[in-house]
Amino acid sequence: MAQLDVALIGAGGIARAHLPAWTTLGARVRVYAPDGQAPTLAAEFGQAAVASREEAMDGADVVDVCTPTDTHHEITLAAVAAGAHVLCEKPLALRAADAEEMAAAAAAAGVRLYPGHVVRFFPAYARLHPLITGGGLGRVAVARFTRTGRYPTWSGWFADPTRSGGILVDQMIHDMDIARWLFGEVVRVHAHHSGHLTAPAPEGAVATGTAVLTHATGVISQIVGVWAPPATPFRTTFHIAGTGGTVRHDSLASPGLRIVGTVGTGAAEGIPAGDFGESPYTTQIRELADAFAGGPEPRVGAADGVAAVRIAAAAADSARTGRAVELLPPLAPEGAAA
User: Fold this and answer.
1) Can you give the pTM of this predicted structure?
2) Among 198, 216, 196, 215, which residue's Cα sits nearest to residue 206?
């Protein structure tokens, strides 16, 4: 694979997961962050920090967007206009219309846009996909996914629903994407959230969300998310039942799973790590980098990112109104890669 020239925008927690992967793959990376943290992060991995976003993007093959969600739309459109491929952290945007515009702009410009749906690259979920789609559980009836981690108080924007979308959009979109990947398009969403749902969020804040998804295939999936007090261990589970049996997973059954990180210049808290072999972030970025360099399409594409935003935004609408939200079939941008 040819060496890629990458502009990494942002120097927060998720950038600290992405930059080691790019470095491992031999990419040249220029890091820019408006908060002034780029020099520290870049130096840690032997990469370059630059003083402006324009300088970072100049000549880049790929722009990796690792900034708060409310900035994704504008940065991605600027990267596409500069002729760069884009890896954009999840969610692609807060609004479905913005995500659709991002995908359409990339398709029109002939560049690739991929969302950072890294859970598809975690071993348990990667193994689950061929099991379900290959009929290993027969006809699936119901599925339940949970995700628990500490409330992300280390960055104030997470608690602000106008910037992150809140727990339904920021955290639970991971499992919404997995449910759609496994069981097909979602046609109905009914959701609820409670707890501390506004900024600022004090230490010890708690928020929870629940979403019930009805898939066009008839499968019903339940997504449960928790932003918990600081001492709560990170945990993900799933339980899927079909006519051919059931499958369960609990990440705490793996003694190597842990949360690493410190507030400030260290790795961000809330990023799961464990004895996975290769980091799922490296696996993800290797697969995307191959595609950026002209290789095969990866397991996640722009249409998946748009669909996940549609589901999460519908969940947020449902939680706000107390009513279920019906979803129309997605319309893929003309010429867009799936």
Assistant:
1) 0.91
2) 196
Q: What is d(CA 103, CA 295) in angstroms, rounded to the nearest whole number? A: 20
Tokens of 215: 């898939």
Per-residue pLDDT tens for 80-139?
A: 999 999 999 999 999 999 999 999 999 999 999 999 999 999 999 999 999 999 999 999
How does pLDDT run across 249-273, given as a tens digit for each residue?
A: 999 986 433 333 333 333 334 555 4
CA–CA distance, 74 with 71 (Å, rounded to integer): 6
Using CA atoms, how far residue 111 sits from 5, 103, 106, 115, in Å, is 15, 10, 5, 13
